[in-house]
Write a structure and sequence with these properties.
Layout (H helix, E strand, L loop, with lengths): L2 H7 L7 H11 L4 H20 L4 H5 L5
Helix pairs in contact: 1-3
Length: 65
């Protein structure tokens, strides 16, 4: 995961989505494209980390959806 993706995904969770979006944009220097890219990379890294922990049988039976 990139350093920016780490910084954005490590932002504290807030009840106010607009505030969270503003904070992600601030961290990315105001560039929405960079913020979105970092969030996608962060999401991909989280999915890969969780995929290693989820039982293949659990996923095959369709219980994971």
């Amino acid at each position: 995961m990139s350093k920016l993706a780490e910084r954005i995904t490590d932002l504290p969770l807030r009840d106010d989505l607009d505030e969270a979006v503003d904070e992600a944009l601030r961290v990315s220097g105001g560039n929405a494209r960079v913020a979105i890219g970092a969030l996608i990379l962060g999401q991909r890294s989280l999915q890969e980390a969780f995929a290693d922990r989820i039982s293949a049988g659990y996923v095959r039976r369709g219980l994971g959806s």
